[in-house]
UniProtKB/TrEMBL annotation:
One of its GO terms (biological process) is protein import. InterPro entries: ExbB/TolQ_transport (IPR050790), MotA_ExbB_proton_chnl (IPR002898). GO terms for cellular component: plasma membrane. The lineage of its organism: Bacteria, Pseudomonadati, Bacteroidota, Flavobacteriia, Flavobacteriales. It is found in: Cell membrane; Membrane. Belongs to the exbB/tolQ family. This is Biopolymer transporter ExbB. Its main location: membrane. It comes from Pseudalgibacter alginicilyticus. The chain crosses the membrane at residues 37-58, 138-164, 184-204. PANTHER family: PROTEIN TOLQ, TOLQ-RELATED.
Length: 233
């Protein structure tokens, strides 16, 4: 029985009685703390970038979701108001809905009576502003997706420099404990940088796809409005 019992040391590491091999585990916190000050600084920077990327993603996804919600009966009501000459009622409806599509249509309604080309130009200009608003801070995600791995690689270079420095000052005796700090810095920062970069890249591409859907929706409703204006009375 005694041969199978394990002794627990003060740090919680399991030690066998008969000198059997020890299975050592390392938590993420221990891994980061073992990387030294340089590694911890870079990990902290990457963590802030990750928090920023997640915040931008959810803030934009909720904004884009709200922008894509358009009543299916909205355009029918606009057409009825315009056909009946109730321009004021159409403008009030656009103001009540308050979405990118309604703002574009509202801009077109204010130009009714002018040439169709002028109405189309006004809608296009308003559309550019709406797209700019939808893409707010999305470029930051693209920057994070590219910068995070580079920051991680910077930590790798720093870690290797520290390891080589310790090797050069080891006095001819090479011990893994001497190299551990530099190697931990090199490996942990690389992994952290890649994780943050991958998360930001996926979030960026998802936002681009969702934004494109809203843009197509805006274009479709704008064309429908212009076609209605171009219909013979």
């Amino acid at each position: 029985m005694l041969n199978t019992l394990l002794l627990i040391n003060q740090e919680g590491t399991e030690l066998p009685v008969d000198g059997e091999s020890v299975e050592k585990t390392l938590s993420i916190i221990e891994l980061i703390s073992s990387g030294g000050a340089a590694g911890q600084i870079i990990i902290a920077i990457l963590f802030l970038l990750l928090v920023g990327a997640i915040y931008i993603y959810f803030e934009r996804i909720f904004a884009i979701k709200a922008a894509s919600n358009v009543d299916a009966n909205f355009m029918n009501q606009i057409k009825d108001h315009v056909s009946n000459g109730k321009i004021d009622s159409a403008q009030i409806l656009c103001a009540q809905v308050n979405s990118p599509v309604s703002r574009l249509i509202g801009k077109g309604i204010t130009r009714i009576g002018k040439p169709l080309a002028d109405i189309n130009t006004a809608i296009e200009n308003a559309g550019r502003l709406e797209i700019y608003g939808l893409e707010k801070n999305v470029s930051v995600l693209a920057t994070i997706s590219g910068a995070a791995p580079m920051i991680g690689f910077l930590g790798t270079v720093i870690g290797m420099i520290l390891a080589i420095f310790e090797l050069a000052n080891a006095g001819g005796s090479i011990e893994m404990d001497v190299l551990a700090g530099g190697l931990y810095t090199a490996m942990t920062t690389t992994v952290a940088g890649l994780i943050v970069g991958i998360v930001a890249y996926i979030a960026y591409n998802h936002l681009v796809v969702r934004t494109d859907k809203v843009v197509y929706q805006m274009e479709a409703h704008s064309l429908e409005f212009l076609d209605h204006l171009n219909e013979p009375t």
